[in-house]
Specification:
- The chain is built from 10 helices and 7 strands.
- The chain has about 270 residues and is α/β, with parallel strands linked by helices.
- The chain has a 7-stranded mixed β-sheet.
- Helix 8 (about 170-180) links the parallel strand 4 (about 155) and strand 5.
- The chain starts with 17 loop residues before the first helix and ends with a strand.
Length: about 270
């Protein structure tokens, strides 16, 4: 298997990665055949997976613009993946100048490509860290340099919490991250769920099993369990809803049915 020039020497390109599979869904080029094969297998059960990825990105853009509109110019994007067109720093700066962004991912390809994209950007950086170890993120030099945690921050956890198993206590990880943020900060979150998928659950479970097979279990949580991540937050209208229904800029009824798979929400600390 030929290793592309952009692939860090340290990674095993025979093992699929959820970041690179997501990149493939979004039409990116930073993925390997092993990632594309896993993606295609999952799409045999859920052909709309690329539409779900696009709906996540569209929600993220709207949430970033909302944050800028609230005067928040600091962003911590955990589980950021491989930057593609319309990443957080691009959307934030197109909306208002002066935004600072720290991306966080544990996939070496995502980190390496982010470093390349951000090489000449003094106000954005990337941390190689895992959501399950919040202190590694909060004490990183990049966060220390770019973010003032005494001022409001938008914490983005988009399409990442469903890869954290219950035994790793994602609720505690989110609580630890948000406890470090100033009042008026935002929690921006999306999460996969069987609710809203335009397929019988047993068919959707086929796609979930593909992720289990590549040792990156996809944990489908109910709306009620996803809402628990927002305990202690004031929910921004319209609350925790299917992605196309969160402050839409186009008619939700025009969206692909798969775009309604899972939930999105924004909460504000008081």
């Amino acid at each position: 298997m030929e290793r592309p020039a952009w692939a860090p020497r340290s990674i095993d390109i025979s093992v699929p990665s959820v970041s690179r599979i997501y990149d493939y869904y979004l039409g990116g080029s930073h993925n390997f055949e092993v990632d594309r094969e896993a993606a295609r297998r999952a799409m045999e059960f859920m052909p709309g997976l690329p539409k779900i990825a696009q709906a996540n990105r569209a929600f993220t853009r709207r949430a970033v613009r909302y944050a800028i509109g609230r005067g928040i110019t600091q962003f911590l994007d955990v589980g950021s993946g491989i930057p593609t067109f319309g990443s957080v720093h691009e959307v934030a700066r197109a909306t208002g100048p002066g935004a600072r962004v720290v991306y966080v991912d544990h996939d070496p390809v995502a980190v390496a490509h982010s470093q390349t994209v951000l090489a000449d950007d003094a106000d954005a950086d990337v941390v190689a860290a895992d959501l399950r170890k919040p202190q590694d993120i909060l004490t990183s030099p990049q966060v220390g340099r770019l973010l003032d945690l005494d001022r409001p921050v938008a914490l983005l956890l988009v399409a990442v919490l469903h890869f954290v198993e219950d035994e790793d206590d994602p609720y505690a990880a989110v609580a630890e991250l948000t406890a470090a943020l100033a009042p008026g900060s935002l929690l921006v979150l999306t999460h996969a769920s069987y609710e809203g998928i335009p397929l019988p659950q047993r068919e959707a479970e086929g796609a979930v099993d593909v992720y289990k097979d590549i040792r990156n279990p996809l944990i489908m949580r109910s709306r009620e369990k996803i809402a628990r991540f927002f305990e202690g937050y004031d929910m921004v209208e319209p609350g925790l809803v299917p992605m196309p229904h969160w402050r839409p800029e186009t008619a939700p009824e025009d969206e692909d049915p798969y775009a309604f798979s899972g939930f999105a929400g924004v909460g504000r600390t008081s």
